[in-house]
TrEMBL record:
Protein name: Alpha-1,4 glucan phosphorylase
Predominant cellular place of this UniProt entry's protein: cytoplasm
GO cellular component terms, semicolon-separated: cytoplasm
Role according to the record: Phosphorylase is an important allosteric enzyme in carbohydrate metabolism. Enzymes from different sources differ in their regulatory mechanisms and in their natural substrates. However, all known phosphorylases share catalytic and structural properties.
EC number(s) on file: 2.4.1.1
Organism phylogeny: Bacteria, Pseudomonadati, Pseudomonadota, Alphaproteobacteria, Sphingomonadales
N6-(pyridoxal phosphate)lysine PTM sites in chain numbering: K673
Family: Belongs to the glycogen phosphorylase family.
Known catalytic reactions: [(1->4)-alpha-D-glucosyl](n) + phosphate = [(1->4)-alpha-D-glucosyl](n-1) + alpha-D-glucose 1-phosphate
Keywords for the protein's UniProt record, in alphabetical order: Allosteric enzyme, Carbohydrate metabolism, Cytoplasm, Glycosyltransferase, Pyridoxal phosphate, Transferase
One Gene Ontology MF term: pyridoxal phosphate binding
Domain of life: Bacteria
Record-linked NCBIfam families: P_ylase (TIGR02093)
InterPro entries, sorted: Glycg_phsphrylas (IPR011833), Glyco_trans_35 (IPR000811)
C-alpha cells in the first residue's frame, strides 16, 4: 500500500546499460515510436530515438525519486525562476546516468555518429544569461546532492530571440526551439490551474469569513498547463522535476464572433493567452510591454503557488504546516509577486487570519538577490499593478502598513528611511517595489558573492537590513563541473582523471591534487596540447558558421556574456583600438598574436548595447582587413551566443574577460567556468572575482582597476572623466578615432554620442580604468610569452576552482536557508 492506501503495482525491472541492449532499444524506438526503418532514418530521427532510450532510464530514476520523497515525508524545495537556461540535455543526461560510453559504443555499432546527432538537438530557449544558467546548474546540483526539488518557470515558445548580425547590427528573430516538439517533456493536463487578471474585489460571503477575507472576481482568466522535464543528478542518484507553465485560453475560439464574420476577434482570447508564454522578457519600454511582463510574472507565480499548496494539502492536510514541508526560493525579483499571491491563497481561499498568513509566508520564502542596479530591482506603476491585480494591491498595502508600523515602532528611522523601506515608491510616479516586497516576505535574503552581499547591506537594502539585521546572508554562486568540465572539455577531463584519479568527479575540491602537476613539464605540455585541440575545434566551427578565419596559435581572448554597459564590452573594444594603433606605430616590437572574441545578446530596446555590438563589428572589419596587423590582432563577434556555443568557446579560451565596473556585477559564473577549463582571468575586484583571487592566488589571476569602494569615492567626489582622458594619450586617440568615424566611414557620427557619454559622465568608469586595463593586458602578454609559466598558472586555476562547485552552494542553501537537516 502507498501513502494514500492504494495498492502498489509491481515495479518494472531496471533497464540494463549495455551497448548491445542499447543498440536494440534505439532501433526499436526508431521503428515503433518514430516510424522509420534504420536504412531510411535521417540524423534527426536517430537523435529522437536516442533521446527516448536515455529518457526511459531517467524516468525509472525519476519515479523512484518521487516515491522516495513521499515516503520520507520531508521538506521539499521549490525554486521559482523566470529563466532556466538548461541547454541541450541529451549528452548531459547520458553522462549523469553513467551511460555515455555505452551509448557511444551502441551508436558506433549502428554506424551513427554521436557528435553529429548531438549537435542537432536544439538549445532550450528558456533563458538569457547568468541568472538562467545558474538556475539550471542549481537544478542539477539539487538532484546530485539528493535534495527533493521542483523548478518552476515558463515554457517559452520562442524564449530569448535568435540573434543574427546583419550589416553589423543585431537582428532579433524567433528562436523556434519547439518547432519539432520536445521529447524530454511531459504534459500534465491534470495539474492545470486557472490564473486571473483584472476584475473587482468584493467582501467574501461566508459565515465564518475573517475581516481580511475577500473575494476576487477576475475579468480575465487563462489556463496554466504544466510540462514536466526530468533533471537527472550525477550518477542518477536523484531525478528532480522542472515544471514549466504554458498559457492556454479557456475558450480557444469565440464561435459567436467567428460565425458573425469577426475572424480575428474570435481568436483574440487565444492570442492574448498565448502571448504570455511566447517570449522571454518582452521589451518593457512601452506600457504594453510592461503589462505583458507583469502578466508573465504573475502567471507563472500564481500557477506555481497553487500547485505547491495543492500538493502540500494532498499529502500533509493542513496548510498551516506549509513552512515545515516547503521551502520556496525566489530567484531574483521576477517571482516576487508570489509573496502577495501566497497571502491571497492563505487568507482568501483558506480563511487564515492575516497575521497568521503573514507568518507562514515569511517562514516559507527565501529571496536571492542578483543585482545592485536600482533599475534591475523591478518596480511596477501602481495604476498598472492595481488594474491587473486588484486584490494583490490591497494585500501589498496591508503588508506595507505592518512593515512601516514595525519600522516606526523601532525608533531607528527618520521619514526618509521610512520611505526607502516602504513597498511603495512615492518619488514621482508611485510604484510597487518588488525587491522590497521579496525582502519583507522572506525569512532569508541572500547575495551571490561575498562582495555583493556586503554591498547589499549598505546600498539597495540598507534600511531594510537595519530593520532586519539577521536576514541577509551570503551564498556565493557555483557551477556544475559535470557539464562545464567533464562534458564540454573531454580532453582536459581525461587528462585530469589520468593524473589524480576519479575522486574529483564526486568531490570537486579533490581537483586541488592537480596542484602537484603545475610544475611538471610533461604535464604542462599535455595540458597545452589539450587547449590547442579545443582552440582548433572552435576555429573550425567559426570558419564553417561565419567564415571567420582565426589562428589557433594566437592567444584566445574571450568575452562572452549579456551585452550591457556595466559589463564593459566597450572597454575591451576601446583597448583593442588602442592596441591596433600601437601595433601599427611600433611594428618592431615583439607583439603577442591575439584573437579577441565577443559574444552576447543585447536587449531589443537597449540602444547603447546594440550600438556596442555594431562597434565591435566595425572595429573588427577595419582591423581584420588591415595587412599591417595580420597575424597579430583579430577581432570577431560571434552571433547567437548560447549554452552550446559556450561549451565550445569556454574550453578554447586562454584569457577570460571579467571586467565589469567594480561593485556592479553580483557574482558572475562565466568566470568560474573559464577558470576550471584552464583560462587565466583578467578582471576587476567585482563579484565572485574577489573570492576567485583568494582561492587561485594573486599570482594566478590578473586584477586591474578601481575597487568598489574607490568607484563610490570617485563618484562622491565629483569624478571628471575628461581630465582622465586628457592625461592618457592612448585612450584619447582611441576615443577620437571611434567618435570621428574612422571605423564608421559610412556614418561618421554613428558613435559620437556613445563616446561623448564617456567624456560627460562615464558612470561605468571606462576612462577611469582604461590605463590600468591596458597595462594588465600587457602583463598578460608577458606571461603568454613564457608558455611554461602560462601553463603553470592555468593548471593552478583548474586545481583551485573546486570550491566554486554549485554542489557546495546548494549544500549551503540547504543547511542555512532551507533547513533540510
Amino acid at each position: 500500500m502507498n501513502l494514500k492506501g492504494e495498492t502498489q503495482l509491481p515495479k518494472p525491472a531496471p533497464r540494463q546499460v549495455d551497448p548491445q541492449i542499447l543498440a536494440h532499444e534505439i532501433v526499436e524506438r526508431l521503428t515503433y515510436r518514430i516510424g522509420k526503418d534504420a536504412k531510411a532514418a535521417k540524423p534527426h530521427d536517430w537523435l529522437h530515438a536516442v533521446i527516448l532510450s536515455i529518457r526511459d532510464r531517467v524516468i525509472d530514476a525519476w519515479i523512484e525519486s518521487t516515491h522516495k520523497t513521499y515516503e520520507e515525508q520531508g521538506r521539499r524545495v521549490y525554486y521559482l525562476s523566470l529563466e532556466f537556461l538548461i541547454g541541450r540535455l541529451m549528452r548531459d543526461a547520458a553522462s549523469n546516468m553513467e551511460m555515455l560510453d555505452d551509448l557511444q559504443a551502441a551508436l558506433d555499432s549502428l554506424g551513427v555518429d554521436l557528435d553529429l546527432i548531438a549537435a542537432l538537438e536544439p538549445d532550450a530557449a528558456l533563458g538569457n544569461g547568468g541568472l538562467g544558467r545558474l538556475a539550471a546548474c542549481f537544478m542539477e546540483s539539487m538532484a546530485t546532492v539528493d535534495i527533493p526539488a521542483y523548478g518552476y518557470g515558463i515554457r517559452y515558445v520562442n524564449g530569448m530571440f535568435r540573434q543574427e548580425i546583419s550589416d553589423g547590427w543585431q537582428v532579433e528573430l524567433p528562436e523556434n526551439w519547439l518547432a519539432h516538439g520536445n521529447p524530454w517533456e511531459f504534459e500534465r493536463r491534470e495539474a492545470s490551474y486557472e490564473v486571473g487578471f483584472g476584475g473587482r474585489v468584493d467582501p467574501a460571503e461566508c459565515e465564518n469569513c475573517g475581516p481580511y477575507q475577500m473575494s476576487w472576481r477576475p475579468a480575465e482568466r487563462v489556463i496554466a498547463t504544466p510540462y514536466d522535464t526530468p533533471i537527472a543528478g550525477w550518477r542518477g542518484k536523484r531525478v528532480n522535476t522542472l515544471r514549466l507553465w504554458e498559457a492556454q485560453p479557456i475558450d480557444p475560439i469565440l464561435l459567436d464572433k467567428f460565425n458573425a464574420g469577426d475572424h480575428l476577434g474570435a481568436l483574440s482570447e487565444s492570442n492574448r493567452a498565448e502571448a504570455l508564454t511566447r517570449v522571454l522578457y518582452p521589451a518593457d519600454s512601452s506600457p504594453a510591454g510592461q503589462e505583458l511582463r507583469l502578466r508573465q510574472e504573475y502567471f507563472f507565480s500564481s500557477a506555481s503557488l497553487q500547485d505547491i499548496v495543492r500538493r502540500h494539502i494532498q499529502y500533509f492536510g493542513d496548510v498551516r504546516t506549509l513552512p515545515d514541508k516547503a521551502a520556496i526560493q525566489l530567484n531574483d525579483t521576477h517571482p516576487a509577486v508570489s509573496v502577495a499571491e501566497l497571502m491571497r491563497i492563505l487568507v482568501d481561499e483558506h480563511g487564515l487570519d492575516f497575521d497568521e498568513g503573514w507568518d507562514i509566508v515569511r517562514r516559507t520564502f527565501g529571496y536571492t538577490n542578483h543585482t545592485l542596479l536600482p533599475e534591475a530591482l523591478e518596480s511596477w506603476p501602481v495604476p498598472l499593478f492595481e488594474r491587473l491585480l486588484p486584490r494583490h494591491m490591497q494585500i501589498v498595502y496591508a503588508i506595507n502598513s505592518r512593515l512601516l508600523g514595525e519600522a516606526r515602532k523601532s525608533g531607528q528611522f527618520d521619514d526618509h528611511a521610512i520611505g526607502t523601506i516602504s513597498l511603495i515608491d512615492e518619488g514621482g510616479e508611485r510604484r510597487v517595489r518588488m525587491g522590497n516586497l521579496a525582502f519583507a516576505g522572506s525569512h532569508s535574503v541572500n547575495g551571490v558573492s561575498a562582495l555583493h552581499t556586503d554591498l547589499m547591506k549598505v546600498t539597495v537594502f540598507a534600511d531594510l537590513h537595519k530593520l532586519y539585521p539577521a536576514r541577509i546572508n551570503n551564498k556565493t554562486n557555483g557551477v556544475t563541473f559535470r557539464r562545464w568540465l567533464m562534458q564540454c572539455n573531454h580532453g582536459l577531463f581525461e587528462l585530469i582523471r589520468e593524473a589524480i584519479g576519479d575522486r574529483f568527479m564526486d568531490d570537486a575540491e579533490a581537483l586541488r591534487e592537480l596542484d602537484n602537476f603545475a610544475d611538471d613539464t610533461a604535464f604542462q605540455e599535455r595540458f597545452l596540447a589539450v587547449k590547442r585541440f579545443n582552440k582548433v575545434a572552435l576555429a573550425d566551427l567559426l570558419r564553417k558558421r561565419i567564415n571567420a578565419r582565426i589562428d589557433a596559435d594566437a592567444l584566445f581572448d574571450i568575452q562572452i556574456k549579456r551585452i550591457h554597459e556595466y559589463k564593459r564590452q566597450l572597454l575591451n573594444i576601446i583597448e583593442a583600438v588602442a592596441l591596433y594603433d600601437q601595433i601599427r606605430s611600433h611594428p618592431e616590437k615583439d607583439w603577442v598574436p591575439r584573437v579577441k572574441l565577443f559574444g552576447g545578446k543585447a536587449a531589443p530596446s537597449y540602444h547603447n548595447a546594440k550600438l556596442i555590438i555594431k562597434l565591435a563589428g566595425d572595429v573588427a572589419r577595419a582591423i581584420n582587413h588591415d595587412p599591417s596587423v595580420q597575424g597579430l590582432l583579430k577581432v570577431q563577434f560571434v552571433p547567437n551566443y548560447n549554452v552550446s556555443m559556450a561549451e565550445m568557446m569556454i574550453p578554447a579560451a586562454d584569457l577570460s574577460e571579467q571586467i565589469s565596473t567594480a561593485g556592479m556585477e553580483a557574482s558572475g559564473t562565466g568566470n568560474m567556468k573559464f577558470a576550471v577549463n584552464g583560462a587565466l582571468t583578467i578582471g576587476t575586484l567585482d563579484g565572485a572575482n574577489v573570492e576567485m583571487r583568494d582561492h587561485v592566488g594573486e599570482d594566478n589571476i590578473v586584477i586591474f582597476g578601481l575597487t568598489a569602494a574607490e568607484v563610490n569615492q570617485r563618484r562622491a567626489e565629483g569624478y571628471n572623466p575628461r581630465a582622465v582622458i586628457e592625461q592618457s594619450r592612448e585612450l584619447g586617440q582611441a576615443l577620437n578615432a571611434i567618435a570621428s568615424g574612422v571605423f564608421s566611414p559610412d556614418d561618421p557620427n554613428r558613435y559620437k554620442d556613445l563616446i561623448q557619454g564617456i567624456y560627460d559622465h562615464d558612470w561605468f568608469m571606462v576612462a577611469a580604468d582604461f590605463d590600468s586595463y591596458a597595462a594588465a593586458q600587457r602583463r598578460v602578454d608577458g606571461i603568454w610569452q613564457d608558455q611554461a609559466l602560462w601553463a603553470k598558472k592555468a593548471i593552478h586555476n583548474v586545481a583551485r576552482m573546486g570550491w566554486f562547485s554549485s554542489d557546495r552552494t546548494i549544500r549551503e542553501y540547504a543547511a542555512d536557508i532551507w533547513n533540510m537537516g
